[in-house]
Amino acid sequence: MRRMRMAVAALAAAGTVVATAACTGDESDVDGEGGGGDAFINMQIGEVYSLIPGSSGESEGYRVMKNVYDGLVYYNIDTGEPENLVAESITSDDNQTWTIKIKDGLTFHNGEPVDADSFIRSWDRTAYAPNVARLNYFFATIEGYADMNPDPLPADTWADPEVPEYDTVETTHLSGLTAIDPLTLEVKLTAPFIGFPTMLGYEAFYPIAEECLNDLEACEAKPIGNGPFMFEEPYNVESGGTAVTWEDYPGDKKPSIDGVNWKVYLEGQDCWADFQTGDIDVCRPTAPDYESAMADEELTSRLVQQSDPSITMLAFPLYDERYQNVDLRRAISMAIDREGVINVIGPDRFDPLDSWVPESILGGGRGACGEYCTYDPEGAKALLEAAGGWPEGEKLQIWVNDANDNTAIFRAIGDSIAESLGIEYELVTVAWPDYLDARDGHAIEGPFRDGWGPDYNLNENYLEPIYGGGASVNNTGFEDEAYNAKIAEAGAAASLDEAIELYAEAEALLAEVFPSAPLFASKINYFYSERLDNVLVHPIYNGPGGDCELRDVTIKS
Amino acid sequence: MTELTVPVSQTQRQASLWADAFHSLRKRPDVIFAVLVMLFVFAMAAFPALFTDQDPTVCRGREARLQPETWFVGEHPLGTDGFGCDFAAAIVYGTRPTIVLALTVMVVSVAVGLVLGITAGYYGRWVDALISRALDVFIVIPMLLGAILLLSLFRGRSAPDSMLETIAPPAIALCLFGWMEFCRYARASTIETKNLDYVMAAKCLGAKDRRIMFRHILPNAIAPVTAVVPTTIGGVIVTEAALAVLGIGVQPPATSWGVLLSDGTEWAGGGYLYLFGIPLVLLILTVFAFATFGDALRDALDPKLR
């Protein structure tokens, strides 16, 4: 899916709302949170791109939305299997026409019913090209998408070079979506897709209330969801905000906490100092802090350590003429001492990655990158020679968003490339929303950081959303006929096992073009505060830098 | 100086003041030590290659955080830092920005301070009032606070390419809040000097204002200012370190002692005390050397204390 997740984020700090934490009974000490009480949990967050379903497609907006909205399905924390949440049932006879029955009696925070129309409303909005929603691409498999997504006007006529503009598009409704009755939604796909239900737990498929659509700006600040948490005060992108538990939440699993405060961390700051003073409840330390934290026995008793299917890559701008040669791209990948970089940023943070799909995902861990993901300075130099060398006096630009210790990680990577290839490099650090815009708009002028977190447990999720959609749409500008054909073949496969094998073959084709260099598979190292209990980190819903299931977490009395 | 009634030859008297100062300075062991430290630091800044054969930009991740096992031998005599760069090289090559910054700030501050101070002292009246009030305004803003406010404007600029770009923002900020002391000293001694008979004589002979100020008054005014210079350099080095720790001074990837200290504090808690300790010791030693030398110089130049 188009969710580019900050596999390694945890952003940094400006907020002032903290601190209902350990103060019992003192009403004067409540920092304006509407819920009263003291069972509020304090979480770190980065800069949110958007809080409207379909518009964010990045980790930080999703971190909020997954708690404020309920999707049709919710992924099982152990297996990753979708389990019905808002949906009563999702069925299909031919994997092409899907019938979704919605549970009766569900409403949004404002009392509007959650029905088939609320989903159609949301999906139509995201699929409508002139809305420029980041998750637009998700709906390409649904009938009628093409009518709503003509080719954009020529790029030089756009007011903002990073925001495409379109002629008037008459079609505003996806013809493949029909409300058979208020609680039954029929979805017609353009081709059979067995994985369709597994996609439905994602942000792109959340419903939107009519009130929200009527005033998107207000809804951006104060989302109207149908999930267990709701905003009483507007959320501020730079200082964060507080969501309280919805008293009338109709779902089975009402959170035990009273609400959550999100505190924003910007520009490479991190939550660790605030975690140590008790102002943040879940936090991942950076490399220097991790060493001292691990030496503290009391602290390690409150550590969640597990593998994380999120990956980090160094992607190449294939639209840039300097990066056309595959040997150059391979040389850069080969020049990276992945083990060495991991040594710099903390040995328990990552595992070196030599495939585009990590091992913990179905069909992953095939080592498709092979020798090109193995550190070999001599081989890298030889490949660079073969590619015609590096232009004299030019610096290799490595683009990275400035969250948390990304700069340190990519400095270590740059150091390694520079040392192996004997070239100079510079880091270009950009704030997260600007980074997303530059990446979407192909304005990045060098290899760049690309992270991916899974939306469901299938290798397809690491292949099609990242490298599909055509050269003008995906981040790297990758397009390859053989690859696209293989992906299409796999999508139409009769069984899941067969599909997985075909997707793995597509991954091997990816290695031929080398649009990105796989770097690391993540490991989760989150510490949580003394007052928390039942801290669960969800492999799919987990946001980077410190997160937990707010629906499950409890506060000790 | 007030006892002077006969205009003695100016150059001869000058020479004897400085010569006397030199004689009294070289007898003091603490001054000898301070001078040696200063020479060492200046040598590192000027000729880093003499002190290390490692390239500070070569960093091997695998070698990150090697503790210095033995002193001054082996490939990494002082170990390696968090990124696997040779730490000795980082310190040696970090000296130049530190020292160049300190010297730049000092030279600019002295120049600005002297010119303003002498102008104010010599002309008096509204010129003096104007400059003195400006001085009052700047003097109530502490140097560090002023620098922090000003440098916040430079945040988010792209990585500097040259030494000049690296040190320009902190240098501008520190100069702006560093000239006042020199100005006050220069103004005070100008007022004292301008009524002396030899100045009067020069005036009567028709010398122009500028000539009187810079040929006759300046040599007298400069002595008390000189004594403040080394102390100021020490102060600038400390302030630079403070700014770097706050993340607004010299910006990585450029290094300075402040940047090293700042990085070192992160690691000190994890058992890598040397990453913090070595730059700290060097910083303290250098500041101590400049302060000692400045103190001794003031004693030596002040005839009343002799």
From TrEMBL, chain A:
UniProt keyword Signal, yes or no: yes
Any one Gene Ontology cellular component term annotated for this protein: ATP-binding cassette (ABC) transporter complex
A GO BP annotation: peptide transport
Signal sequence interval, chain numbering: 1-21
Pfam families found in the cross-reference section: SBP_bac_5 (PF00496)
Domain Solute-binding protein family, chain residue ranges per copy: 81-471
GO MF annotation: an example: peptide transmembrane transporter activity
Protein name: ABC transporter substrate-binding protein
Organism: Glycomyces paridis
Recorded superkingdom: Bacteria
Keyword annotations from UniProtKB, A to Z: Signal
From TrEMBL, chain B:
Cell compartments where the protein resides: Cell membrane
Transmembrane spans: 31-51, 99-123, 135-155, 221-251, 271-297
Biological process terms in GO annotation: transmembrane transport
Keywords assigned by UniProt, alphabetized: Cell membrane, Membrane, Transmembrane, Transmembrane helix, Transport
Any one of the GO CC terms: plasma membrane
Membrane topology: Multi-pass membrane protein
Primary location class: membrane
Superkingdom, natural source: Bacteria
Signal sequence, renumbered to the chain: none
Domain ABC transmembrane type-1, residue spans: 95-291
Homology family: Belongs to the binding-protein-dependent transport system permease family.
Annotated protein name in UniProt: ABC transporter permease
Organism: Glycomyces paridis
